[in-house]
Specification:
Largest sheet: none
Number of helices: 6
Number of strands: 0
Helix content: over 70%
Structural class: mainly alpha
Distance between the termini: 38 Å
Radius of gyration: 42 Å
């Protein structure tokens, strides 16, 4: 291999060194570009799937509180018109819970490194919320019936039943729903942290690769420069020593350079000149 390199013309030696350095620089640049693209994708995911998702789930939590407040207002409504206003608002609040939840469920749901599953936690929340909605519907139906009761005693009995439904059924189910939502938020937080840690690791690894790659490219560049300079200087020095010997009167002096590059051609011409002078 060394002989092959030594026989290359000086131009090809230089071009080979430049080509090798350029290839390494291109590889390093390609890997670094992939790292940057990966970081960009992770940042996009963190924003779209977790920053936005966190906002959506916060809206769900806020609207759940509004839902429960609306239940209490339905229980304390002093007129049928006020009750009907509360019923209308309840439908609007229910939609305001469903819309951000649908937006969140449309994102890619993941599993955290600790094993928490967004899909499972989302399903658990939906199930507990559905149970609450059933209890809430029963509460409103009972209150609606109390406003159309034929007698005061029947109305009071229905109101007492509604209060019992709120305290013993709808209330505990709302607490279970909020607990399930908190569990889902905890999972989202963990997955987002995993994504952030992964992005940080990618940045660190990319920087380390760039530093190591830069050092390697510089080292190879220095080595190729040293190798080319060594071939040229050693062979030229050999020719110079032979020329000095002839100049000192030793017509039998010859250069031992046998490479096929420009210095080798110079040595061969010099040796031919020495033979002619000696003859």
């Amino acid at each position: 291999m060394v002989v092959w390199f030594g026989n290359l013309k000086t131009m090809w030696k230089l071009m080979l060194g430049f080509a090798l350095t350029s290839i390494l620089a291109t590889v390093i640049g390609g890997v670094a570009s992939q790292g940057v693209m990966s970081i960009g994708e992770q940042l996009r995911v963190v924003y779209e799937d977790y920053t936005v998702a966190g906002t959506d789930l916060a809206l769900v939590a806020n609207n759940l509180n509004r839902t429960r407040t609306n239940d209490f207002q339905a229980l304390t409504a002093s007129t049928k018109e006020a009750f009907e206003t509360v019923v209308t608002r309840d439908g609007e609040i229910t939609e305001s819970v469903k819309k951000p939840l649908e937006a969140y469920s449309a994102t890619i749901l993941r599993v955290s490194k600790s094993g928490k599953d967004e899909t499972k936690d989302l399903q658990k929340f939906r199930e507990t919320y559905a149970e609450y909605v059933v209890a809430s519907d029963l509460l409103y139906e009972t209150l609606k019936a109390s406003w159309t009761a034929q007698t005061k005693s029947e109305s009071e009995a229905l109101r007492a039943k509604a209060h019992a439904i709120s305290a013993q059924n709808a209330g505990p189910k709302m607490e279970a729903t909020i607990s399930a939502l908190n569990g889902l938020l905890g999972t989202v937080k963990e997955v987002a942290k995993d994504m952030n840690d992964s992005g940080t690791a990618t940045v660190r690894n990319t920087l380390l690769f760039l530093v190591a790659g830069t050092i390697v490219v510089i080292a190879i560049g220095i080595f190729m420069g040293w190798l080319i300079a060594r071939f040229l200087s050693r062979n030229l020095n050999n020719v110079v020593l032979a020329a000095q010997a002839i100049g000192a009167g030793d017509l039998s002096a010859r250069s031992s350079v046998a490479t096929e590059d420009e210095v080798g051609a110079l040595a061969q011409s010099f040796n031919e000149m020495g033979e002619k002078l000696q003859a």
